[in-house]
């Protein structure tokens, strides 16, 4: 292995690791606020990439219909619960029916047009992000106080349901979408594609935005506070269910953006997101489902190890990557500390 | 204008076991205390008033019924509980804990809500010294100050205090009750639940005695403090003595 190959593999690993870092951050964020291990995180990758591909083919993505169907179901539940307070029905109807219907209408109108790629990406993002809060409202909010094990089982069930639905609505074919930019640059021996730079750049930008959100804004601090002490959060008037919904919205946005960024580089199938999400999950576990910086560093290391494994022992690359979790779990079990318990 | 809190026939049950059997009380303003032995249902009452526990009965704040509202909505209407366990954000800084106390004011778009920090630091200078430290490293007394400070940041109309002296050293208990007495001047109405009946009755205007989930006696604090049964059960011989 020459130094050129090493540099090339590191470059490749960082581009993939950046995506795992984003997914890992989303998993830590959701766990911190809700105690839910976000098994379906990868779904957003597949749904966003496949929706974008349908838009590129001038077709209305099936996610628009699925979103409306799930929105109607959610609105039905909300309205039933608010049946004695008709005024309380207005907000869920707007959020879960009017908005998805408007998005479907927009797709009908815009999909046949030759839109700029950025506009298609924005539309794909707008279609997939609302799945986050709807997923939380339908599957998790009714059992928000349940144990992490129950929440994990529900999370697995949601993942299976949405993956199966993905197969039904998108079919089994894989897609690659058009890149945001096709240019490439030469840096010494490295040939950097503009798309890879987009991936790394957007990841870095998102991380800075997340840091500023949690560190500098009251909404971010409120989300953090909900993670630290749910009862304390209620006592200062933070709507903890809304905090869960916001965490899922952010996770869906991060997942969907990852899908849009990675789909020009990797072929995406209805279930590809799962494997990527799992690598993000390993990074999150190494970060103790608690530390954002450690999660990012772990994700980059995972990306680089995967890249080297693909070169040296491609058949075993997944085995090598997933085996990373074993020594980490062993080490963490030795210095066991219950993660996320209130330290009262 | 001081706020008024009315609790009517409040029933709290844990499964089949009823902890509160239709307790009623009124807080017209000032300081009202609920005293009683351990397990009498005092904390259950406060948690139910705050909406943290499912309950039957009614809770009114200035004529508006709160019974069906979530705790967050009750906070938005001016109710605030300083819980027995303090419920601080232990991994966050003292200042962040205080700022989050004003979350509802921020949400309502109230201007100058951050300025209340200086007011709280003026009242609790120790918190200013510790403002950058995380809440987990504070002593018991400092945690109590932070819990009170965080509650006051929200500018509540009614403050519910659950066992504020619990687990504190005698000197800190005296300081805590001095602060509670001082709060009267701010106009906030206080419902104080306390096992330390002597101290609670000294600071309150009116008192209720809760035993095994029912209100068994009530009256002006001075009258209760001189009631032979209350003296025998809760105050011992030193009914007229100072807070310890």
Report on the architecture of this protein:
The complex is a heterodimer of chains A (344) and B (244). Chain A has helices at residues 3-34, 41-56, 62-81, 90-110, 117-128, 131-140, 148-170, 194-216, 218-228, 230-235, 240-262, 272-286, 292-312, 317-323, 325-334; strands at 184-187, 190-193. Chain A is an all-alpha fold and 344 residues long. Chain A has a single domain (3-61, 111-334), classed as ABC transporter involved in vitamin B12 uptake, BtuC (Orthogonal Bundle). In chain A, strands 1-2 form a two-stranded antiparallel sheet. In chain A, helix 2 packs parallel to helix 7. Chain B is an alpha/beta fold and 244 residues long. Chain B has 2 domains: 1-78 and 157-244, P-loop containing nucleotide triphosphate hydrolases (Rossmann fold); 89-155, no CATH class. In chain B, the strands form 2 sheets. Chain B has a 6-stranded mixed beta sheet with strand order 6-7-8-3-9-10, with helices on both faces. Chain B is globular, with a radius of gyration of 17 Å. Chain B starts with a strand and ends in a 9-residue tail after the last helix. The interface between A and B is medium-sized, with 20 and 29 residues.
